[in-house]
Amino acid sequence: MITLYRLRFLLTSHGFKYASKFISNGQLLNLVLLPCFASGKAVSSYRKDIHGVSHRKAVKVHLTLNSFSTVTVNRLCWKCGSSAELFFCPSCNMIQPPDDKTNYFDILKCEQTFSLDTQELQKRYVELQRAVHPDNFSQKSLKEQEYSEEQSALVNKAYRTLQKPLSRAVYMLKLRGVLLEEGTDATADPAFLLEIMEINESLAETCSQDEVSAIGRSVREKLKDLTERMNSSLNKGDLLTAKELLAQMKYFTNIEEKVIMYNESGSVSSA
Protein backbone atom coordinates (compact mmCIF):
# COMPACT_ATOMS: atom_id res chain seq x y z
CA MET A 1 0.00 0.00 0.00
CA ILE A 2 2.86 2.39 0.84
CA THR A 3 4.52 1.65 -2.49
CA LEU A 4 1.31 2.34 -4.38
CA TYR A 5 0.89 5.60 -2.52
CA ARG A 6 4.41 6.70 -3.43
CA LEU A 7 3.92 5.87 -7.08
CA ARG A 8 0.64 7.76 -7.17
CA PHE A 9 2.32 10.75 -5.54
CA LEU A 10 5.00 10.84 -8.21
CA LEU A 11 2.47 10.64 -11.02
CA THR A 12 0.04 13.24 -9.69
CA SER A 13 0.25 16.94 -10.51
CA HIS A 14 1.68 17.50 -7.01
CA GLY A 15 4.41 15.02 -7.71
CA PHE A 16 5.10 16.56 -11.10
CA LYS A 17 5.52 19.93 -9.46
CA TYR A 18 8.65 18.51 -7.82
CA ALA A 19 9.67 16.36 -10.80
CA SER A 20 12.99 18.13 -11.25
CA LYS A 21 13.84 17.45 -7.61
CA PHE A 22 13.04 13.74 -7.91
CA ILE A 23 14.89 13.23 -11.17
CA SER A 24 18.03 15.10 -10.17
CA ASN A 25 18.25 13.37 -6.78
CA GLY A 26 19.15 9.70 -7.21
CA GLN A 27 18.59 8.75 -3.57
CA LEU A 28 15.17 10.38 -3.49
CA LEU A 29 14.19 8.71 -6.77
CA ASN A 30 15.31 5.32 -5.47
CA LEU A 31 13.33 5.84 -2.28
CA VAL A 32 10.14 6.45 -4.25
CA LEU A 33 10.56 3.90 -7.05
CA LEU A 34 12.70 1.11 -5.58
CA PRO A 35 9.72 -0.87 -4.19
CA CYS A 36 8.20 -0.85 -7.68
CA PHE A 37 11.20 -2.49 -9.40
CA ALA A 38 12.97 -5.81 -9.02
CA SER A 39 16.33 -4.21 -8.28
CA GLY A 40 18.13 -0.95 -7.75
CA LYS A 41 19.79 -1.51 -11.13
CA ALA A 42 16.44 -1.08 -12.85
CA VAL A 43 15.90 2.19 -11.04
CA SER A 44 19.38 3.37 -12.00
CA SER A 45 18.72 2.53 -15.65
CA TYR A 46 15.36 4.29 -15.54
CA ARG A 47 16.90 7.39 -14.01
CA LYS A 48 19.67 7.44 -16.63
CA ASP A 49 17.18 7.24 -19.49
CA ILE A 50 14.97 10.05 -18.31
CA HIS A 51 17.57 12.38 -16.88
CA GLY A 52 18.67 13.74 -20.26
CA VAL A 53 15.17 14.53 -21.55
CA SER A 54 12.55 14.49 -18.83
CA HIS A 55 14.57 16.60 -16.43
CA ARG A 56 14.92 19.38 -18.96
CA LYS A 57 11.24 19.19 -19.84
CA ALA A 58 10.19 19.23 -16.20
CA VAL A 59 12.37 22.23 -15.44
CA LYS A 60 11.19 24.00 -18.59
CA VAL A 61 7.53 23.44 -17.74
CA HIS A 62 8.14 24.52 -14.16
CA LEU A 63 9.72 27.78 -15.34
CA THR A 64 6.98 28.26 -17.93
CA LEU A 65 4.24 27.94 -15.36
CA ASN A 66 5.96 30.33 -12.98
CA SER A 67 6.66 32.92 -15.68
CA PHE A 68 3.70 32.78 -18.02
CA SER A 69 0.68 31.41 -16.14
CA THR A 70 0.06 34.42 -13.96
CA VAL A 71 -2.73 36.06 -15.96
CA THR A 72 -6.03 34.43 -15.04
CA VAL A 73 -8.65 34.10 -17.74
CA ASN A 74 -12.17 32.79 -17.34
CA ARG A 75 -11.95 29.59 -19.35
CA LEU A 76 -11.19 25.89 -19.05
CA CYS A 77 -8.28 23.89 -20.41
CA TRP A 78 -9.14 22.16 -23.68
CA LYS A 79 -7.26 19.04 -22.57
CA CYS A 80 -8.06 18.38 -18.91
CA GLY A 81 -10.95 20.74 -18.19
CA SER A 82 -9.18 22.54 -15.35
CA SER A 83 -9.12 26.31 -14.96
CA ALA A 84 -6.67 27.53 -17.59
CA GLU A 85 -4.23 30.42 -17.61
CA LEU A 86 -3.36 32.64 -20.56
CA PHE A 87 -0.67 30.48 -22.16
CA PHE A 88 -0.46 27.15 -20.32
CA CYS A 89 -2.67 25.01 -18.12
CA PRO A 90 -1.17 24.81 -14.61
CA SER A 91 -2.67 21.34 -14.12
CA CYS A 92 -1.61 19.44 -17.26
CA ASN A 93 0.90 21.97 -18.71
CA MET A 94 -0.77 22.01 -22.13
CA ILE A 95 -0.43 25.13 -24.26
CA GLN A 96 -3.75 26.93 -24.59
CA PRO A 97 -5.41 28.63 -27.59
CA PRO A 98 -5.17 32.43 -27.70
CA ASP A 99 -7.82 34.39 -25.83
CA ASP A 100 -9.26 37.02 -28.19
CA LYS A 101 -10.59 39.05 -25.26
CA THR A 102 -7.15 39.60 -23.72
CA ASN A 103 -5.50 42.90 -24.61
CA TYR A 104 -1.87 43.27 -25.68
CA PHE A 105 -0.78 44.72 -22.35
CA ASP A 106 -1.98 41.64 -20.50
CA ILE A 107 -0.41 39.36 -23.10
CA LEU A 108 2.99 40.95 -22.51
CA LYS A 109 2.31 41.32 -18.79
CA CYS A 110 2.92 45.06 -18.60
CA GLU A 111 1.06 47.99 -17.12
CA GLN A 112 -1.50 49.62 -19.40
CA THR A 113 0.31 52.93 -19.72
CA PHE A 114 1.68 54.92 -22.63
CA SER A 115 5.08 55.45 -20.99
CA LEU A 116 6.21 51.84 -21.31
CA ASP A 117 9.67 50.59 -20.48
CA THR A 118 10.49 49.30 -23.97
CA GLN A 119 13.55 47.37 -22.77
CA GLU A 120 11.43 45.47 -20.27
CA LEU A 121 8.80 44.99 -22.99
CA GLN A 122 11.42 43.44 -25.28
CA LYS A 123 12.67 41.20 -22.48
CA ARG A 124 9.16 39.96 -21.83
CA TYR A 125 8.60 39.39 -25.56
CA VAL A 126 11.75 37.27 -25.89
CA GLU A 127 10.80 35.18 -22.85
CA LEU A 128 7.31 34.57 -24.19
CA GLN A 129 8.52 33.57 -27.63
CA ARG A 130 10.93 31.09 -26.10
CA ALA A 131 7.99 29.47 -24.32
CA VAL A 132 5.40 29.38 -27.12
CA HIS A 133 7.54 29.23 -30.26
CA PRO A 134 6.37 26.52 -32.72
CA ASP A 135 9.83 24.91 -32.75
CA ASN A 136 9.15 23.74 -29.20
CA PHE A 137 6.04 21.87 -30.33
CA SER A 138 7.23 20.19 -33.53
CA GLN A 139 6.88 16.74 -31.93
CA LYS A 140 3.58 17.50 -30.21
CA SER A 141 0.02 16.91 -31.38
CA LEU A 142 -1.41 18.87 -34.30
CA LYS A 143 -3.64 20.83 -31.94
CA GLU A 144 -0.68 21.85 -29.77
CA GLN A 145 1.26 22.88 -32.88
CA GLU A 146 -1.70 24.94 -34.07
CA TYR A 147 -2.11 26.71 -30.73
CA SER A 148 1.62 27.35 -30.55
CA GLU A 149 1.61 29.03 -33.96
CA GLU A 150 -1.41 31.14 -33.03
CA GLN A 151 0.04 32.18 -29.66
CA SER A 152 3.41 33.01 -31.23
CA ALA A 153 1.74 35.15 -33.93
CA LEU A 154 -0.35 36.96 -31.31
CA VAL A 155 2.69 37.68 -29.14
CA ASN A 156 4.48 39.08 -32.22
CA LYS A 157 1.53 41.31 -33.07
CA ALA A 158 1.22 42.54 -29.49
CA TYR A 159 4.91 43.38 -29.32
CA ARG A 160 4.97 45.22 -32.67
CA THR A 161 1.95 47.26 -31.61
CA LEU A 162 3.26 48.30 -28.20
CA GLN A 163 6.89 48.74 -29.22
CA LYS A 164 6.49 52.10 -30.99
CA PRO A 165 4.76 55.21 -29.61
CA LEU A 166 2.50 55.79 -32.62
CA SER A 167 1.03 52.29 -32.86
CA ARG A 168 0.84 52.14 -29.05
CA ALA A 169 -1.18 55.37 -28.98
CA VAL A 170 -3.51 54.13 -31.73
CA TYR A 171 -4.10 50.91 -29.81
CA MET A 172 -4.66 52.61 -26.44
CA LEU A 173 -7.22 54.97 -27.96
CA LYS A 174 -8.88 52.03 -29.70
CA LEU A 175 -9.22 50.27 -26.33
CA ARG A 176 -11.04 53.39 -25.15
CA GLY A 177 -13.35 53.45 -28.16
CA VAL A 178 -11.57 56.29 -29.99
CA LEU A 179 -10.63 55.78 -33.63
CA LEU A 180 -8.70 58.13 -35.91
CA GLU A 181 -10.75 58.38 -39.08
CA GLU A 182 -9.28 58.66 -42.55
CA GLY A 183 -9.17 62.19 -43.95
CA THR A 184 -8.41 63.93 -40.66
CA ASP A 185 -6.92 66.82 -42.71
CA ALA A 186 -10.32 68.52 -42.81
CA THR A 187 -10.42 69.02 -39.05
CA ALA A 188 -6.70 69.67 -38.51
CA ASP A 189 -5.31 73.09 -37.64
CA PRO A 190 -4.55 74.94 -40.94
CA ALA A 191 -1.29 76.32 -39.49
CA PHE A 192 -0.18 72.80 -38.61
CA LEU A 193 -1.02 71.49 -42.08
CA LEU A 194 0.95 74.36 -43.62
CA GLU A 195 3.95 73.46 -41.47
CA ILE A 196 3.76 69.83 -42.60
CA MET A 197 3.48 70.86 -46.26
CA GLU A 198 6.54 73.11 -46.01
CA ILE A 199 8.63 70.40 -44.35
CA ASN A 200 7.64 67.88 -47.03
CA GLU A 201 8.50 70.35 -49.80
CA SER A 202 11.90 71.09 -48.28
CA LEU A 203 12.63 67.41 -47.95
CA ALA A 204 11.56 66.67 -51.52
CA GLU A 205 13.59 69.51 -53.05
CA THR A 206 16.80 69.34 -51.06
CA CYS A 207 20.00 67.77 -52.30
CA SER A 208 21.85 68.46 -49.08
CA GLN A 209 22.51 65.70 -46.58
CA ASP A 210 23.03 68.34 -43.89
CA GLU A 211 19.57 69.79 -44.52
CA VAL A 212 17.99 66.34 -44.40
CA SER A 213 19.77 65.65 -41.11
CA ALA A 214 18.53 68.96 -39.72
CA ILE A 215 14.96 68.11 -40.72
CA GLY A 216 15.35 64.71 -39.10
CA ARG A 217 16.55 66.22 -35.81
CA SER A 218 13.69 68.73 -35.80
CA VAL A 219 11.09 66.04 -36.47
CA ARG A 220 12.46 63.79 -33.73
CA GLU A 221 12.23 66.66 -31.25
CA LYS A 222 8.63 67.32 -32.26
CA LEU A 223 7.78 63.62 -31.90
CA LYS A 224 9.41 63.56 -28.48
CA ASP A 225 7.27 66.51 -27.39
CA LEU A 226 4.12 64.95 -28.85
CA THR A 227 4.88 61.67 -27.09
CA GLU A 228 5.17 63.41 -23.72
CA ARG A 229 1.94 65.32 -24.30
CA MET A 230 0.20 62.13 -25.40
CA ASN A 231 1.28 60.41 -22.20
CA SER A 232 -0.08 63.32 -20.14
CA SER A 233 -3.40 63.38 -22.02
CA LEU A 234 -3.96 59.63 -21.66
CA ASN A 235 -3.11 59.75 -17.96
CA LYS A 236 -5.69 62.51 -17.49
CA GLY A 237 -8.27 60.70 -19.60
CA ASP A 238 -8.39 63.63 -22.05
CA LEU A 239 -9.19 61.52 -25.11
CA LEU A 240 -10.13 64.45 -27.35
CA THR A 241 -6.69 66.03 -26.96
CA ALA A 242 -5.05 62.60 -27.29
CA LYS A 243 -6.85 62.08 -30.60
CA GLU A 244 -5.60 65.44 -31.92
CA LEU A 245 -2.05 64.64 -30.83
CA LEU A 246 -2.28 61.24 -32.51
CA ALA A 247 -3.10 62.88 -35.85
CA GLN A 248 -0.02 65.09 -35.50
CA MET A 249 2.14 62.11 -34.54
CA LYS A 250 1.08 60.36 -37.74
CA TYR A 251 2.19 63.29 -39.91
CA PHE A 252 5.57 63.67 -38.24
CA THR A 253 6.16 59.91 -38.19
CA ASN A 254 5.56 59.89 -41.94
CA ILE A 255 8.19 62.61 -42.39
CA GLU A 256 10.61 60.73 -40.15
CA GLU A 257 10.21 57.67 -42.37
CA LYS A 258 11.01 59.80 -45.43
CA VAL A 259 14.19 61.05 -43.74
CA ILE A 260 15.22 57.46 -43.07
CA MET A 261 14.49 56.59 -46.70
CA TYR A 262 16.63 59.49 -47.89
CA ASN A 263 19.52 58.41 -45.69
CA GLU A 264 19.30 54.89 -47.09
CA SER A 265 18.76 55.62 -50.79
CA GLY A 266 19.62 59.28 -51.33
CA SER A 267 16.11 60.20 -52.49
CA VAL A 268 12.66 60.73 -51.02
CA SER A 269 9.41 59.25 -52.29
CA SER A 270 6.64 61.76 -52.94
CA ALA A 271 4.11 59.43 -51.28
From TrEMBL:
Gene Ontology terms, MF aspect: ATPase activator activity; metal ion binding; protein-folding chaperone binding
UniProt keyword Mitochondrion, yes or no: yes
Signal peptide region: none
A single GO cellular-component term on record: mitochondrion
Subcellular location, record wording: Cytoplasm; Mitochondrion
Keyword tags: Chaperone, Cytoplasm, Metal-binding, Mitochondrion
J domain: residues covered: 103-175
One example of a Gene Ontology biological process annotation: [2Fe-2S] cluster assembly
Pathway assigned in UniProt: Cofactor biosynthesis; iron-sulfur cluster biosynthesis
Protein purpose: Acts as a co-chaperone in iron-sulfur cluster assembly in the cytoplasm. Also mediates complex formation between components of the cytosolic iron-sulfur biogenesis pathway and the CIA targeting complex composed of CIAO1, DIPK1B/FAM69B and MMS19 by binding directly to the scaffold protein ISCU and to CIAO1. This facilitates iron-sulfur cluster insertion into a number of cytoplasmic and nuclear proteins including POLD1, ELP3, DPYD and PPAT.
Family: Belongs to the HscB family.
Subunit structure: Interacts with ISCU and HSPA9 to form an iron-sulfur transfer complex. Interacts with SDHAF1 (via the first LYR motif); the interaction recruits the iron-sulfur transfer complex composed of HSC20, HSPA9 and ISCU and mediates the incorporation of iron-sulfur clusters into SDHB which also interacts with HSC20. Interacts with the cytoplasmic form of ISCU and with CIA complex member CIAO1 (via LYR motif).
Protein's UniProt name: Iron-sulfur cluster co-chaperone protein HscB
